[in-house]
């Protein structure tokens, strides 16, 4: 009974999430709706998938804890692939963790500096 009364950290907690988001466009810059995007943890081969919306936006939330800092990740959609490294401060349990990767044709471009603003826009749009 005592164990049930103790607080437990859930996997929905901030420090268990790593969000990868971005836009998928064709070679002319037009959004690609309905495209499957897959994020693979290279070490475990476990993958997370998402699909793009009408604007070409995808959002994938992976379960990566503090111990996963520096982990190699592969992000792919169709013929395009991007190699990533899970970069975050494992002692920071207040800020969202993640990155932004845009795919233009077969080229993936990481834009980590745009992650927070893109996530804020996405969250704001889903609350309307």
Topology:
Layout: H1 2-5, E1 17-25, E2 36-41, E3 47-51, E4 57-63, E5 72-77, E6 80-85, E7 98-104, E8 107-110, H2 115-127
Parallel strand pairs: 1-7
Antiparallel strand pairs: 1-4, 2-3, 2-5, 5-6, 7-8
Query: What distance separates the N and C termini?
Result: 42 Å
Got a strand count? Answer: 8
CATH topology group: Immunoglobulin-like
Overall shape: it is: globular
* Helix vs. strand class: mainly beta
**Radius of gyration from CA coordinates:** 16 Å
The overall number of domains is: 1
Largest sheet: 4 strands, mixed
Report the uncertain regions: none
Widest sheet: strand ordering = 4-1-7-8
Topology as a string of helices (H) and strands (E): HEEEEEEEEH
Looking at CATH, the homologous superfamily is Immunoglobulins
Average of the residue pLDDT scores: 90
CATH class: Mainly Beta
Under the CATH scheme, which architecture would be assigned?
Sandwich
The share of residues in helices is 10-25%
Continuous helix count: 2
Relative strand content: 35-45%
Summarize the structure in words:
A hairpin with a 2-residue loop joins strand 7 and strand 8. The chain has a single domain, classed as Immunoglobulin-like (Sandwich), CATH 2.60.40. The mean pLDDT is 90. The chain has 2 helices and 8 strands, in the order αββββββββα. The chain is globular, with a radius of gyration of 16 Å. The longest helix is centred in the last third of the chain and has 13 residues. It has 128 residues and is mostly beta strands. Helix content is 13%, strand content 39%.
